[in-house]
Amino acid sequence: VVVCLIAVLALVWTMPDIPKTVKTGEICLPSEIGPLKCGSTADLLHGYLEREIATKYDEIKRQDQKKQENHLKKVSARLMNIYDKSFWEMKPAAKLPGKEQTDLRKNDITADMVPIKKWCNGRKLYDTKGFFKYGIKYRNGPLIVPVKGTYFIYSNLDFFQSCHPSSGLPDVKNINKPIKHGIFKFNILEGEEEELVSNVQPHTISTNRYYNSYNSYVSSLAELKAGDELSVKVSNISY
């Protein structure tokens, strides 16, 4: 109400001379497209006050947002001093090196892509550069996300493929079927698996005629929920 009264008083003091042709029940006010617009008092006054209040509201909102940002900076600095930066570094994270894989199950033989199920974990992880931090769990291949958030996910693999010595062609049943590598997520509540990021490469002829080597690196930012299971899949586990 105070804002409206102030706006009306300011309007009265700053209003240009009203044309003499204005009828009873009409008013002339500054408009968006010109200096003055005459018409119904109620309609014009409502529109004018709505524009003026919206401008004031946006200004107050910007000031409030700036105050919040300044407050967060002060609180952040205080917490950093108290917890020696560890407070902001307590984010779920994991890094697992792979290990030799087991043979395919019957259900996976005809699958387009199969998951990598063997990773260094437990005591074997101590001899590597791998780690688990702040709630990430391992379950027979997949990693389990503990909390909702934006995660950086990545996977790096080296492939080795045998070739025919006489021609250098890859020793595969279908050379037209590409090599695939990707990261997938699954949530038991949703019941569907989703591909997050992938890489596809064609087969090539070996220069040494005995084997081919490929490298595949995939990465992405992903919005994950608590309980999401992340797994790495490839088109041929024998590589």
UniProtKB/TrEMBL annotation:
Its main location: membrane. Pfam families: TNF. GO terms for biological process: immune response. One of its GO terms (molecular function) is tumor necrosis factor receptor binding. Residues 92-239 form the THD domain. It is found in: Membrane. Keywords: Cytokine, Membrane. One of its GO terms (cellular component) is extracellular space. PANTHER family: TNF FAMILY PROFILE DOMAIN-CONTAINING PROTEIN, TUMOR NECROSIS FACTOR FAMILY MEMBER. Belongs to the tumor necrosis factor family. This is TNF. It comes from Ruditapes philippinarum. The gene is TNF.
